[in-house]
Amino acid sequence: MKQQLLAFTTLAIMATPAFCLAAPPHPGPYVSGFLGVSTPRDTDVTTDDYANAQTFNDRVALDPGIYVGGTAGYDFGIVRLEGELSYRYSEMKSITDQADGYQFQSPDGNLGVLAVMGNAFFDFHNRSPITPYWGGGIGFATMHLSDTYGIDTRSGTAQDLLLYPADDATVFAYQAGAGMEVALNRRISLDIGYRYFGTATARFDSDRSTPTELKFESHNALVGLRVKF
């Protein structure tokens, strides 16, 4: 992941001189599309087994995954207001039982997050075509948790267990970030940015006897194109 971010930054720096002669962008409505990488933070997962009066607490690590989306909004010159639709997807890398530190073998599961956000970004215009910005947004996210399995060998035999049943949940979401807009001409610009994204705790209870709760947080790097009208 560090190598990917280094390459991402290097390309952005190398590309900057080529755009320095472009005219700064002008205010007005715009649309954009972007593609990037989402790096989720490890998350605590709680599962209540009502039938056996037990609670299981796991620590789940997720692999970096795709981050893709688009926006539509209006640039007022100093502030931009926009609506955003984005999607993040990550495979589960490890699942650890926090009670005894046991790590389930061959974890098989994934988490997808579809977010609808309302954002506000503040632009710091200057005499160059490069405009730094910062801001954030709030909205909601629909999270899809797949059937998640792991092999447990603590009993002496390998058991392939269903740890979390598949389900969907919709929760409050938020994000904050910064970046730079590089004008290619008066209507088209390159967007290079970072977002920190998080959700409230989601409850997955398709199996009401064993509901599972978790929240999602991730670091996100993106590159996109913005077109103004």
Can you give a write-up of this model?
This protein has one helix spanning 2-19, and strands spanning 28-40, 43-49, 54-62, 65-75, 79-97, 105-108, 110-123, 130-145, 148-152, 159-164, 167-183, 188-199, 202-204, 212-214, 217-228. The protein is built from one helix and 15 strands. Strand 13 and strand 14 (212-214) form a beta hairpin. The chain has one domain (2-228): Beta Barrel (Porin), CATH 2.40.160. The radius of gyration is 21 Å and the shape is elongated. The longest helix is centred in the N-terminal third of the chain and has 18 residues, at 2-19. An eight-stranded antiparallel β-barrel has the order 1-4-5-7-8-11-12-15. A three-stranded antiparallel sheet has the order 6-9-10, with no helix packed on it. The model is unreliable at 4-23 (pLDDT under 50). By secondary structure, it is mainly β. Keywords: Signal. This is Outer membrane channel protein. Residues 1-22 form the signal peptide.
Write the layout of secondary structure elements.
Layout lengths: L1 H18 L8 E13 L2 E7 L4 E9 L2 E11 L3 E19 L7 E4 L1 E14 L6 E16 L2 E5 L6 E6 L2 E17 L4 E12 L2 E3 L7 E3 L2 E12 L1
Antiparallel strand pairs: 1-4, 1-15, 2-3, 2-14, 3-5, 4-5, 5-7, 6-9, 7-8, 8-11, 9-10, 11-12, 12-15, 13-14
The total of beta strands comes to 15
Q: Largest sheet, order of strands side by side?
A: 1-4-5-7-8-11-12-15
Can you tell me the overall shape? elongated
Number of helices: 1
Instruction: Please name the CATH architecture.
Output: Beta Barrel
Along the chain, the helix and strand elements come as HEEEEEEEEEEEEEEE
